[in-house]
Amino acid sequence: MTQKQIKGLNLKELMEVCEKQDIPTFRAKQIYQWMYRHHIDDIMQMNNIPLALRNYIKDNYILNTLDIENIQESEYENTKKILFKTHDHKLIESVSMIDKNLHTVCISSQVGCSVDCQFCATGMMGFKRNLTCGEIIDQIIHISNLRDEAITNIVYMGMGEPFLNYNEVMKSADILHDHNGMNLGRNRITISTSGILPKIKQFIDEKRGYKLAISLNATDDNTRTKIIPINKKWNINMIIEELEKYPTDKKNMIMLEYVLLKGINDSKEDAEKLSYYGNLLKCKINVIPFNDIGNEYKRPNAEIINKFIEILHKNQKHYQTLVRWSKGIDIDAACGQLSTKTS
Questions:
Q1: Which fold, 4-62?
Q2: Any catalytic annotation for residue 18?
Q3: CA 242 – CA 246 distance, rounded (Å)
Q4: Which residue is catalytic, options 18, 69, 93, 120?
Q5: pTM score of the predicted model
Q6: Looking at the predicted structure, is the pLDDT value of residue 313 above 80?
Q7: CATH number, domain 66-331
Q8: How many CB atoms lie within 10 A of CB 266?
Q9: C-alpha distances in angstroms, 15 versus 19, 22, 23, 31, 179?
Q10: pLDDT tens for residues 154-169?
Q11: Contacts of 188 (CB under 8 A, 6+ apart)
Q12: Active site includes 113?
């Protein structure tokens, strides 16, 4: 008998499982809390669940969707990169970063990626498959069990394009947010996209409320198409026009992510145009100096980076400027560096 994944089912789906077995549906809430609130990875440890139901789940469902293959620790920061293996022997990576009272986990949504951003190692893998909701959540559960510090923030910025796995990503985010699940505030969950316009529209229309990050990385279409090929389909103006509809406030501002590439997108004119977009959208601008992935792209020198940031600060009226010096560079865990060899 082929076993299905029970981790990743929401409360409604768990109630349907119980109903089919003529089991009171309040048991569904208990199972839900054991998995997502208490992070139990052994069905037999769910001690308030009748043994018959535990045996049924054990015989028919998979509780653990991932196995930890390897853990790398940075020598310089409290950062760990975790390599996971799925049941079909695919490999994915997640990153746990602890800085003072913040514990941020960067999770993957796909095995590989089809978007092919030229500055990202994951894109060089190609696309294998989408992750299930259970596989997305299991990254967080494993890391929560691995670390003593409570997770405070989740960012969907690991391997893959989250908006090309929209349904499973949103389902997982809803479980993370649910007070019976992991009870993370909506503003503690950030979902990044390279610009999948139909799903940006859907995200806005559905009033999801999670933080939205846009991987912009260029201020003109020629440059953006070169480094992010999907720009041919959904260009900068189309994305900006849609983002103008986003109901932002100080607690839930759009984030424009901008990876600085030497001689590509680091000019004075780029900084001025990025400032214009920032003021228009009243957003956050997150500048990320490029992290080496072994291809032709390079990080600008410190002088160029500082000048770029100075222009952003000078023109800042309605936006915030952030500079993200990535953590875990020594273990290839920094922004854009996640990549695995998988069949």
A1: DNA polymerase; domain 1 (1.10.150)
A2: no
A3: 7
A4: 93
A5: 0.92
A6: yes
A7: 3.20.20.70
A8: 21
A9: 6, 10, 9, 10, 17
A10: 999 999 999 999 999 9
A11: 152, 153, 154
A12: no
